[in-house]
Amino acid sequence: MTAMRQAFQATIVHCLEDPGEHSTPSAYEHFEDGLLVVADGHIEALGDAGDLLPTLGDDVLVTEYRDKLIMPGFIDCHVHYPQLDIVGSYGEQLLDWLNRYAYPAEAQFADPNHAREVASAFVEQLLLNGTTTALVFGTVHPHSADAIFEAAAARDMRLIAGKVLMDCHCPEELRDDAESAYRDSKALIEKWHNHGRLGYAITPRFALTSSAEQLTAAGRLAAEHPDVWIHTHLAENRGEVDEIERLFPARRSYLDVYDYYGLLRRRAVFAHCLYMDDADRASMSAAGGAAAFCPTSNLFLGSGLFDLSAMRAANIRCGLGTDVGGGTSLSLLKTASEAYKVLHLQDHALPAMRALYLATLGAAEALYVDEHIGNFLPGKEADFVVLDPAGSSLTARRMATTDTIEEALFALLTLADDRHVAATYVSGRVQHAL
Ligand SMILES: [Zn+2]
């Protein structure tokens, strides 16, 4: 049987490594009239259309995306699907915001039908924003993980998620305990981890809402399953950091709490990482932990500014996260634009190609899935987004004044949104089209 082959013709751009603050040209590839050849859901070739088209057989269906821009599917390194319906809730910092908005929304997930309805709407929102992979928080309810995995599996998405662990300092109805957290998470790992493209993440909300017994149980589970992910929050807010110091006086730092309980390792992803010192960065780097940079959330909740240059200088894997509902958009384009501003306030640059890296290959590296996704190297899975630079009347005008791909991409990062996502492909199949 011959493989099913398709090709997509458009302007194509992808990253090969981190272009850095000076946008190293060898770190990315750009084909003005490019062709992406896909066979059985995987990348077969990428190059100039003029070179590749004559080599294809007559059986290959060529889809022309004239004046469009194809890039790897976006990867969201940190997001809460149960908070979809409270995005844009007014006026609190982290700990008050959780109590006032997030916890009541999550309590509604006691109803499995509600969980399924929101999970389905959430993955549709990911796809219409061009996001093909995400690392996702559920709620404390085990069926919240079932719901998001079922929704992702129905669309063949590479998605990582987990049930939240929280047994203290939170509302009674949202608590599990050390024993049930371990047992329920273990059952979910057996059910979903490596089921198709899905992966499981052990998901303690943060050290504030897990007892020492629960953190111990989470560490035991992590040790028993070295290839599952760990997903939590770290040093988002000064008030939170002060509470951690009070609750764990024997630990050197917030990160050291996670390290002590066996939760700092490869495939451990920490959202925010705003208040870290050099010793923390050195230990995170050495252990292979990764950071999710969530600029819209950090600005919206007044949390602080992520120091990307210090993190990358320490060789820490970093990707962008939307952190909806603390974050204000599921669009990685809008998230990258806010990342640019956060770095600008710290006298650092974020060129367009580095922003693209943080939303694609860098995020794939942070999640340890870069052997599968993140760019268009042959053999990788064909997850990609087709952007329409003329998706709004303003960007149509703006594109007329850009001369280079770097300028055009930067203007799109600043101005574009879901109106500019013409199509989203997952494993070579279209899952969203305008
Ligand atoms: Zn979060």
How would you describe this protein?
- The chain is an alpha/beta fold.
- The chain is built from 16 helices and 16 strands.
- Strands 5, 6, 7, 8, 9, 10, 11, 12 and 13 form a 9-stranded parallel sheet that branches. Strands 3-2-1-4-14-15-16 form a 7-stranded mixed sheet.
- Helices cover 37% and strands 24% of the residues.
- Strand 2 and strand 3 (42-48) form a beta hairpin.
- It has helices at residues 49-52, 94-107, 112-128, 142-153, 178-192, 212-224, 238-247, 254-260, 278-287, 295-300, 308-313, 332-344, 352-359, 361-366, 393-399, 405-415, and strands at residues 5-15, 28-39, 42-48, 61-72, 74-80, 131-137, 158-162, 164-165, 199-204, 229-234, 268-272, 290-293, 317-320, 384-387, 421-426, 429-433.
- Helix 12 (332-344) crosses helix 16 (405-415) and helix 15 (393-399) runs antiparallel to helix 16 (405-415).
- Zinc ion binds next to strand 5.
What's this, in brief?
Helices cover 37% and strands 24% of the residues. It has 434 residues and is α/β, with parallel strands linked by helices.
Unreliable parts: none
Measured on Cα atoms, how large is the radius of gyration?
Answer: 21 Å
Tertiary shape: globular
Summed up, the helix count is 16
Major β-sheet annotation: 9 strands, parallel
- Ends: how far apart? 33 Å
Which ligands occur here? zinc ion
In total, the number of strands is 16
What class would the helix/strand composition place it in?
alpha/beta
Please indicate the percent range of residues in DSSP E strands (runs of 2 or more). 15-25%
Helix content: 25-40%
Overall mean pLDDT: 97
